[in-house]
Write a structure and sequence with these properties.
By secondary structure, the chain is α+β, with helices and mostly antiparallel strands. The protein is built from 24 helices and 16 strands.
Length: 625
């Protein structure tokens, strides 16, 4: 929070006018930045750098995708205000010669490697055959651990912590867009100050953030969970995933034909053709022509609102609504995945490489982008078609392991509710056990509908769901929803106590935390606006649960990765989807891998109830999960 005020002070001069003059720039520093462009200079600098226990490093490349970017140069810093830039030629053989000179530096297990988004540098160097060894310190992740809701890019951190304005990359390669150049086009003399500054600023940030981590009780989370995770994520990303492009082609043909069929059905129901992709025309057909509701919602410009949410609430009003929703769903599936995935295959590796973002979600969960593989719809048949196309390496099987009801188990642990703990310890299905207690009947009398309602309550209550929300989700009246929630809290009284206490803690401290002390700040918890405050209260209940689940699977990932390396396992971790880990496993390692993965997942953290992992095998992701 202090940093936020400082930033406001930097950016305005009290009258609200922008003013950056209080920020230092490179010109105002006594800097010593050197261009290291001969063999002689390189030898000298390597000897100097090898003596240091801390090495800040940064790579300059031709692009932002580490799997396809080429290395243009490397910068290093071991003392503040001093840095060195080593250009690397475009010819791979020549580049490898230079990199081999620096290999002892990268592979020195005794020095701490410091970087801003260092996973990127690890991947770029790995593509050149260099494995960076030793402990890591990532300034971007350090700031994320301290302030998950803020931005973590280096320019912002330099302004906040160092009151310093970095050289903008646009000065070198131009603004974003198709005419933007890249570092390879520039003379090293024009690059070296920018590159040296990156390494130097990173070192300075590390010296400040290191102290902040200590002061904020965040060292365990940072050094024992987030930092060891970086090489694991780099490993998963570089492994990539194999796609059965033939299967995707067939799916594409099948869905395209299906879309055409649905279009004809929609036109028949609308009694005429129109552009289904146009929200304006959809609104006119539904509300002017077919008049499926009396009062339709409009935007400020007078156009009808036809968002997913609105149409979903009218699904039962007219057959055409369901068809339009289905049409949209299939279009999205085709555009986002089925037709898009084959275009994302890396020509060098023949695989799709997602990027895992360690500093995006406020809860501590990983997110995935380019492409987002954590978002593939799995509940419906259509989404399953996509999972079928993800296959293991030749001679291997697809192995998938996921935590069973981890968030409910964490709720049982945190609330210490005796009944919930007993339900898990007895080995009964938790939703059936919950239903039996709520409806006060024996386990064997619980029917599918009761179990479904108990399951909705179990998961809804973790997210602080309201009576209204539960009624809507379960399609029942509010009276039944209220009875269900009352019955739930009667069954698990300490869960209610835990929820109330979480909100109280958030009010008092301004944050809640996970079992590994990951903080989630909730400044709106005392808001006068009931809606805003309610949102913060739901986060106060859920963030420790979802965040603890995220922390636990990270611990498991690190341990599995380390055991694979120690025991010389050839199997590869290829994807994480929140509570699920996926692997490509050579046939002879089948039993050994299952044993390691399940053991490490189930022992990642000791709780009042056991962690349980389920697993499956198959020829593709769909079969395994």
């Amino acid at each position: 929070p202090i940093q936020g005020d400082l930033f406001a002070e930097i950016m305005t001069d009290g009258q609200g006018d922008e003013k950056k003059s209080t920020l230092q720039t490179l010109d105002s520093l006594p800097y010593d930045y050197q261009l290291i462009d001969t063999q002689e200079k390189r030898s000298e600098i390597i000897q100097k750098l090898l003596t240091s226990e801390i090495l800040a490093l940064d790579t300059e490349t031709t692009g932002t995708d580490p799997m396809s970017a080429e290395l243009v140069g490397m910068s290093f810093s071991i003392v503040e205000n001093q840095a060195f830039y080593v250009p690397v030629p475009a010819e791979r053989e020549e580049a490898l010669k230079i990199l081999n000179e620096f290999r002892p530096l990268f592979e020195n297990e005794h020095s701490l490697k410091v970087g801003q988004n260092i996973k990127y540098d690890l991947l770029v160097l790995q593509n050149m055959g260099i494995e960076v060894k030793g402990r890591l310190f990532d300034t971007m992740v350090a700031h994320y651990v301290l302030q998950p809701e803020l931005r973590h890019n280096m320019d912002y951190l330099a302004e906040i912590y160092l009151r310093y304005q970095t050289i903008p990359i646009e000065e070198l390669i131009g603004g974003k867009g198709k005419n933007q150049g890249n570092m390879r086009d520039l003379n090293p003399k024009d690059v070296y100050l920018y590159a040296c500054e990156d390494a130097d600023v990173t070192l300075k940030l590390k010296n400040i953030l290191e102290k902040e981590l200590k002061e904020n009780d965040a060292e365990q989370l940072f050094y024992e969970i987030e930092m060891p995770l970086i090489p694991v994520l780099a490993h998963i990303e570089s492994n990539g995933m194999l796609l059965d492009t033939e299967a995707l082609k067939q799916s594409s043909d099948y869905f395209t034909a299906k879309i055409k069929l649905i279009e004809q059905e929609i036109y028949a129901l609308a009694d005429g053709e129109f552009n289904i992709a146009s929200p304006k025309q959809v609104g006119e057909v539904l509300f002017d022509k077919l008049k499926i509701v009396d009062k339709a919602k409009k935007t400020k410009t007078g156009q009808y609102v036809t968002s997913e949410e609105v149409l979903e609430s009218m699904r039962h009003k007219h057959e055409i609504v369901e068809k339009i929703l289905e049409h949209r769903g299939l279009k999205k599936l085709l555009g986002t995945y089925i037709d898009a995935l084959p275009l994302l295959i890396n020509p060098r590796t023949g695989r799709v490489h997602t990027s895992f973002n360690q500093t995006v979600t406020a809860t501590g969960r990983l997110s995935s982008s380019n492409p987002n593989l954590q978002n593939i719809p799995i509940r419906d048949e259509n989404g399953k078609e996509i999972r079928k196309a993800f296959i293991p390496d030749e001679g291997s099987l697809f192995f998938s392991a996921d935590y069973s009801q981890i968030e409910l188990r964490i709720m049982a642990h945190l609330s210490e509710d005796k009944n919930m703990i007993d339900a898990f310890m007895s080995g009964h299905d938790i939703h059936t056990a919950t239903a039996a207690k709520i409806y006060k009947i024996p386990l064997n009398e619980v029917n599918a509908d009761m179990r479904r309602k108990a399951k909705t309550a179990n998961f809804g209550i973790i997210y602080g769901i309201s009576i209204f929300g539960l009624a809507e989700r379960m399609n029942v009246d509010r009276k039944e929803a209220k009875e269900l929630i009352d019955g739930y809290f009667e069954t698990y009284p300490q869960v209610k106590t835990y929820m109330d206490k979480s909100i109280e803690v958030a009010r008092e401290k301004g944050y809640v935390e996970t079992v590994f002390h990951r903080k989630r700040f909730l400044p709106d918890i005392n808001s006068r606006n009931a809606v805003v405050r309610g949102y913060a209260e739901r986060n106060a209940i859920n963030a420790p649960i979802q965040g603890s689940a995220a922390d636990i699977i990270k611990v498991a990932m690190v341990r599995i990765y380390e055991r694979f390396r120690r025991e010389n396992i050839q199997a590869k971790m290829i994807l994480q989807v929140h509570d699920e880990l996926n692997f490509s496993v050579p046939l002879p390692e089948h039993e050994q891998v299952e044993h390691i993965v399940i053991t490490e997942m189930e022992n990642a953290y000791r709780m009042h109830v056991p962690l349980k992992a389920d697993c499956g095998w198959g020829k593709n992701w769909l079969e395994a999960h």
